[in-house]
Design a protein that fits this description.
The complex is a heterodimer of chains A (349) and B (131).
Chain A (H helix, E strand, L loop, with lengths): L2 E2 L3 E3 L6 E6 L8 E6 L5 E4 L5 E4 L7 E6 L5 E6 L3 E6 L5 E6 L4 E6 L5 E6 L4 E5 L8 E3 L8 E5 L4 E5 L3 E6 L4 E7 L4 E7 L4 E6 L2 E6 L5 E6 L4 E6 L5 E6 L4 E5 L5 E5 L6 E6 L5 E6 L4 E5 L32 H10 L14
Chain B lengths: L6 E2 L36 H29 L3 E6 L4 E9 L5 E9 L2 E9 L3 E6 L2
Antiparallel strand pairs in B: 2-3, 2-6, 3-4, 4-5
The chains are: A mainly beta (349), B alpha+beta (131).
GO cellular component, one term (chain A): SMN complex
GO biological process, one term (chain A): spliceosomal snRNP assembly
GO molecular function (chain A): kinase activity; RNA binding
Chain lengths: 349, 131
């Protein structure tokens, strides 16, 4: 009894979804923010995709969006040359930070005291959110527009990507520590604090580097140009999506392609695992956000595992071992249901 | 040999979309700041009912927080204080429906490490973990 992935489609945006970010896990669950070219970023409940609210105020396409760890604040980067900070509980705009060109990326520090921004003016800016009137600190050095900027190493360093380079900066001295050059355009970057791993996508490659030294760890090639990839919190899987509209799931250790899904009607621009690793979200040119289960068939969020009436097929082993293959996890999920099915207990070697 | 057709995973409902009327962030949402006290004397029927419903809401909110705390524990190392002054450490796996048992991995006990174990919650006095 194989189960087929049922993606959950979150509608509401009217133009391509270009960025998405999850918050950390809060007492109210976790949250998801999506950046859209329609200029109206949205906040959703992370495990169900239910819309909570829309941040209204930007006058241009929103290119980047992020939430702070406890989802009390949101920040957005837009084509109207501003970055904005929002109260994520009330939806109110807290600050508008003027820039000299399109802003592409925003990131909060762990304590939410500072906001890092980057964009087409090729400057990294650090704003002290407790002193909104003060001028931001600026770091120059990029020679093309900055696509992504992230705090790393407990906010002591900054990682930034422009078209062909990824650079590591020291926060205290505001100087460049190291850089990586690429032949192809870097499409995305993700930072994993546990293990200090940097996930970079360019062309059809999904590459993993140390966030501390920028040394390469490993890389995989996908069947099509990849725009975004995300590593599972337990580092067992990674997911990636790009120009062929498909989502790919790989085993991080072996590089084996485990699953692939069609579903979006346009290229995928962003993909991220939820903080608990139970689902991943993808944003596409088709204007939708989709939520996908990491373990297909597990009861979680809006997905509910319900066994069919017919028990004829069930001659499966009831005893499972703590492995993480799809099949065994589906069986464990189905064991949560009633015990009316008689089973021949076979032990898997 | 033909594989049987795969069944799509059932869903309870689809994600809710924007209401098309407002920007959202419902004032009675779970994260909204507490509303001011409802007028009406505490002893009157109206006062009693609203006190009860407030209490029920508070209980529901606390229950939800507790359940989410269990979710947050998954995969983390947890220190358990059991009866008779016994302390054990394990990686938290899951709780059962009634939170009567905890499924844990790599349980470090005074007599060795158990790969998998069920801890009876009635044996647990307290537990702590760092998220």
């Amino acid at each position: 009894m194989a189960m087929r992935q049922t993606p959950l489609t979150c509608s509401g945006h009217t133009r391509p979804v270009v960025d998405l970010a999850f918050s950390g896990i809060t007492p109210y669950g976790y949250f998801l923010i999506s950046a859209c070219k329609d200029g109206k970023p949205m906040l959703r409940q992370g495990d169900t995709g239910d819309w909570i609210g829309t941040f209204l105020g930007h006058k241009g396409a929103v290119w980047g969006a992020t939430l702070n760890k406890d989802a009390t604040k949101a920040a957005t980067a837009a084509a109207d040359f501003t970055a904005k900070v929002w109260d994520a509980v009330s939806g109110d705009e807290l600050m508008t930070l003027a820039h000299k060109h399109i802003v592409k990326t925003v990131d909060f520090t762990q304590d939410s005291n500072y906001l890092l921004t980057g964009g087409q003016d090729k400057l990294l800016r650090i704003y002290d959110l407790n002193k909104p009137e003060a001028e931001p600190k600026e770091i120059s050095g990029h020679t093309s527009g900055i696509k992504k900027a992230l705090w790393c190493s407990e906010d002591k360093q900054i990682l930034s990507a422009d078209d062909k380079t990824v650079r590591l900066w020291d926060h205290a001295t505001m100087t460049e520590v190291k850089s990586l050059n690429f032949n192809m355009s870097v499409s995305s970057m993700e930072y994993i604090p546990e293990g200090e791993i940097l996930v970079i996508t360019y062309g059809r490659s999904i590459a993993f580097h140390s966030a501390v030294s920028l040394d390469p760890i490993k890389s995989f090639e996908a069947p099509a140009t990849i725009n975004s990839a995300s590593l599972h919190p337990e580092k067992e899987f990674l997911v990636a999506g790009g120009e062929d509209f498909k989502l790919y799931k790989y085993d991080y250790n072996s590089g084996e392609e485990l699953e692939s899904y069609k579903g979006h009607f346009g290229p995928i621009h962003c993909v991220r695992f939820s903080p608990d690793g139970e689902l991943y979200a993808s944003g596409s040119e088709d204007g939708t956000l989709r939520l996908w289960q990491t373990v297909v068939g597990k009861t979680y969020g809006l997905w509910k595992c319900v066994l069919p009436e017919d028990s004829g097929e069930l001659a499966k082993p009831k005893i499972s071992f703590p492995e993480t293959t799809e099949e065994e996890l589906e069986e464990i999920a189905s064991e949560n249901s009633d015990s009316i099915y008689s089973s021949t207990p076979e032990v898997k070697a | 040999m033909q594989t049987p057709p795969a069944i799509p995973v059932p869903v309870l409902r689809l994600p809710r979309g924007p209401d098309g009327l407002s920007r959202g962030f419902a004032p009675d949402g779970r994260r909204a700041p507490p509303k001011p006290e409802v007028p009406g004397s505490p002893g009157s029927p109206v006062g009693r009912e609203s006190r009860e419903s407030r209490e029920q809401q508070a209980r529901a909110a606390l229950r939800e927080r507790y359940l989410r705390s269990l979710l947050a524990m998954v995969g983390h190392q947890v220190n358990f204080t059991l009866h008779e002054g016994v302390h054990v450490t394990a990686h938290f796996g899951a709780a059962d429906l009634d939170v009567a048992n905890f499924y844990v991995l790599q349980l470090q006990t005074p007599i060795g490490v158990q790969a998998e174990a069920l801890l009876r919650c009635s044996d647990i006095i307290s537990y702590t973990f760092k998220p």
